[in-house]
Write a structure and sequence with these properties.
It is a single chain. 35% of the residues lie in helices and 21% in strands. By secondary structure, the chain is α+β, with helices and mostly antiparallel strands. A hairpin with a 4-residue loop joins β5 and β6. α1 packs antiparallel against α3 and α13 packs antiparallel against α15. The longest helix has 15 residues. The protein binds zinc ion. The site of zinc ion has 5 residues, from β18.
Length: 478
């Protein structure tokens, strides 16, 4: 008589079962091969895991989650691993497996009549953009990591980027999703309907859930007409209070063609010029504040340059905008964008940084910039305030770099004090402590501090409803 044994649990039994079900080629166990999946690209977070499993289909993702549930092993879903809050890295316990979506990288369909693209979670964002472009259409999500981040991660974190003002965040680009639930069941929600008013919009629950509610395996995304005319300009401002006026004037003069409206303070531009080879200051003298503006229209000959000039002429005269450079060619526009896009890299090269991804109502952004700098500097005198980001969205990356003469450890030890200073001000201005990078592991405490208890409790109940055993991305967000 065979003795009655409980089903084997724990990581070892799970690895055996995964190997049998998916084949050894889907599993990484060698520490050197696993290393890139266990640390983030900035080197801030390093975790441990017994295995990295890379399923090649939705059915295989389902198998992984079913087996993990049965074995009682927690799972950390991972896309391109470019996140900034540690949300795709396992903790140091070594008890979680990493589920990489990198092999699920097919563009399933581009439909030019429906204006949709159906992609698997492991597609690199730039490949989604390219597939749309080859069909003569635009997928507008655009951000610095687009060459390596994967769309599943963009969806799981509701990524923002530089075209949110015009096209919205990632969640605004989603029509339908395919999701594998914690127990392995597949939710087939790949609908491509613009209108579908039939109950809770489940897809939106998973967008921005940071892998805590289910694993997104595919998505139907919205496409747009390809811009035929694009104009780029860099404006110099004396006072950020004038930026709102410029934005309003540009939106009304161009028929709402403002795609990007990005802010940079002098320190951030200076860092990009000093630290990154090839960047050139387009102005002959320094200015305190800059706006990088992009206008675009799907109509050829939309007259955007004329509109830009007509808006700028009076503002240049009355001194709101003190100088302006209008790009005369594609390469000139790219050179302007490069300054903006290399700021994070320049900041990294310049030493340790404390990063705050905050937003306030657009009307209060100048006040945030004005009061936020001294509030942070009171905690670390002499530090460099590096402020840049998406002014048009009310979202600024309001960062601090270590001052000369202060060691990295001493500077980083001021982190909580600086965060307290800036987040309290943001709260006073009715803003958010996490505008686009998400919560991950690093901002969990702030969720309970700055969100109403009722809101957090509702999130916890949703988590329990969809992942009752708590196997998905433990320690992230909630
Ligand atoms: Zn950003």
């Amino acid at each position: 008589m065979s003795e009655l044994r409980p089903r084997p649990t724990g990581p070892d039994a799970l690895i055996d079962a995964l190997e049998t079900a998916l084949g050894a080629a889907a599993l990484l166990r060698d520490p050197a091969e696993m290393a890139p999946y266990l640390a983030d690209q900035r080197g801030w977070f390093t975790g441990r895991a017994p295995v990295v499993v890379s399923p090649a289909s939705t059915a295989e993702v389902s198998t992984v989650l079913r087996l993990a549930s049965e074995a009682g092993v927690t799972v950390v879903p991972q896309g391109g691993n470019t996140g900034l809050v540690g949300g795709s890295i396992p903790d140091e316990s070594g008890g979680s497996i990493v589920l990489s979506l990198r092999r699920m990288n097919r563009v399933r369909e581009v439909d030019p009549v429906d204006f949709t693209i159906t992609v698997e979670a492991g597609c690199v964002l730039a490949e989604v953009q390219t597939a749309a472009r080859e069909a003569g259409l635009l997928f507008p999500l655009s951000l610095a990591a687009e060459g390596s981040c994967r769309i599943g991660g963009n969806l799981a974190t509701n990524a923002g980027g530089t075209a949110v003002l015009r096209y919205g965040n990632t969640r605004d680009l989603v029509l339908g999703l395919e999701v594998v639930l914690a127990d392995g069941r597949i939710w087939e929600g790949l609908r491509r309907l613009r209108k579908d008013n039939t109950g809770y919009k489940l897809a939106q629950l998973f967008v921005g859930s940071e892998g805590t509610l289910g694993v997104i395996t595919a998505a139907v995304l919205r496409l747009f007409p390809m811009p035929r005319e694009v104009r780029t300009a860099l404006l110099a401002l004396r006072d950020p209070r004038d930026a709102g006026v410029v934005l309003e004037a540009l939106r009304s003069a161009t028929g709402d063609a403002v795609t990007s409206f990005e802010y940079m303070n002098r320190a951030s531009v200076e860092l990009a010029l000093e630290q990154v080879a090839g960047n050139v200051d387009p102005f002959d003298r320094p200015h305190d504040h800059y706006l990088l503006v992009e206008l675009s229209s799907a109509r050829q000959g939309a007259g955007l340059l004329e509109a830009l000039e007509s808006v700028l002429a009076p503002i240049l005269e009355d001194g709101g905008v003190v100088d302006a450079v209008l790009a005369q060619s594609g390469p000139q526009a790219e050179a302007l964008w490069r300054i903006r896009e290399t700021i994070p890299e320049a900041q990294r090269l310049a030493g340790a940084g404390l990063k705050h991804d905050v937003s306030v109502p657009l009307s209060r952004l100048p006040e945030l910039l004005e009061r936020g700098a001294p509030a942070m500097l009171a905690e670390v005198p002499g530090a460099l305030v590096v402020a840049f980001g998406h002014f048009g969205d009310g979202n600024v990356h309001f960062n601090l770099n270590q001052p000369p003469g202060m060691g990295r450890a001493a500077f980083m030890a001021r982190r909580e004090a600086v965060e307290h200073a800036i987040y309290e001000l943001v709260a006073e201005l009715e803003g958010s402590f996490g505008a686009e990078h998400g919560i991950g592991r690093v901002k969990r405490a702030y969720l309970t501090r700055y969100r109403p208890a009722v809101e957090v409790e509702a999130m916890r109940r949703l988590k329990r409803a969809l992942d009752p055993a708590g196997i998905l991305n433990p320690g992230v967000m909630l």
